[in-house]
Design goal:
Blueprint (H helix, E strand, L loop, with lengths): L4 E2 L16 E3 L42 E3 L6 H9 L2 E3 L12 E6 L3 E6 L3 H12 L13 E15 L2 E12 L4 E6 L19 E4 L5 E8 L9 E9 L3 E10 L6 E3 L3 E8 L8 E4 L6 E4 L5
Parallel strand pairs: 4-7, 10-17, 13-16
Antiparallel strand pairs: 1-11, 2-14, 3-9, 5-6, 5-8, 7-8, 8-9, 10-11, 11-15, 12-13
Length: 298
């Protein structure tokens, strides 16, 4: 069995897309067979996005709900568990402003920007704790609290359906580990659905300058004519508000060939009937993916 997977932002592979080195028997399709036909367009995946205001200005942010975090390392395992479990408390004398600048901004490469109402550090901290609660699993019952030693208004990168957005953020220093946490300072009304949009490994790729050619990235078999190569084909279903992509694959081989299962970076291109513009990119199951301009790394 060959493992294949799609990625979100170009260059940032989803964690479960690990390269495996396993000897397996390849499929029964021989070299020189007929071209692989594309799958059926996944029209059912479009329905959930019929109400998306694709032409709104500013377009609602489809945010994947991640927080910003950075640490210089942990002195021991307990500090790491505390961090993963999201146990943080405000230190003595540290104030959480109930308001910051009136407007917060979000910026995308290669130059798009929009401004939105902001929230205070108190709201941001409450939402940060809620998003990280018990992320460490069963070990969290014994986790201690790490102390927030300072808070400030700043900027950090967060995942969206149009790549990483540099958003205004409330940043929280965690002194004991030399760490920093960040949460968007943008009001929930700016996000589609009023908050984060789950993405379970939806397709991701780049769009051409004319908005018509979508190049999807994935990890799979090599692009070789031999018995261990793999072919890909894709099809798009389109609506006014969304584009859903289905991908099919076929492994070469005669049934008696052993192939190593390394992960190879591959792409498959889909030509759209109309420019993508502000439409949402989905996979065949309706999961939201991330798309970036082909001339920029986002």
């Amino acid at each position: 069995m060959r493992v294949a997977c799609v990625y979100l932002d170009m260059g940032r592979l989803v964690a479960w897309c690990l390269s495996l080195f396993v000897v397996v028997a390849c499929g029964s399709v021989g070299e020189g067979s007929t071209p692989l036909l594309p799958p059926a367009p996944p029209t059912a995946a479009l329905v959930a996005w019929n109400d998306f205001p694709v032409h709104a200005n500013p377009r609602p942010i489809i945010w994947f709900g991640d927080s910003y975090e950075h640490t210089n390392g942990f002195a021991d395992g307990s500090g790491k568990i505390n961090w993963l479990c999201g146990h943080f408390v405000i230190g003595t004398g540290v104030q959480l402003p109930s308001a910051g600048p009136a407007r917060a901004v979000a910026k995308w490469k290669p130059g798009a920007m929009a401004s939105y109402p902001s929230i205070g550090a108190d709201q941001a901290f409450a939402r940060l704790l809620a998003s990280r609660k018990d992320a460490g699993g069963s070990n969290c019952s014994s986790a201690a609290a790490e102390v927030i030693t300072a808070v400030r208004w700043g900027e950090a990168g967060f995942g969206t359906d149009r790549g990483t957005a540099q958003m205004s953020a409330w940043l929280f220093d965690v002194g004991a580990v030399g760490g920093e946490l960040g949460y968007p300072a943008i009001d929930a009304s700016a996000y589609w659905g009023g908050g984060k949009t789950a993405s379970s490994g939806g397709v991701g790729g780049k769009i051409s300058a004319d908005g018509l050619t979508l190049t999807i990235g994935l990890i799979g078999g090599p692009d070789t004519p031999g018995p261990c190569g793999e072919d890909y084909a894709a099809a798009a279903a389109e609506s006014v508000t969304a584009v859903a992509i289905a991908i099919s694959s076929r492994i070469h081989g005669d049934g008696n060939v052993g192939c190593t299962l390394e992960g190879h970076f591959r792409t498959v291109a889909v030509r759209l009937a109309k420019p993508l513009d502000g439409r949402v990119l989905l996979d065949a199951k309706g999961n939201v993916g991330s798309v970036c301009p082909e001339n920029g790394d986002c």
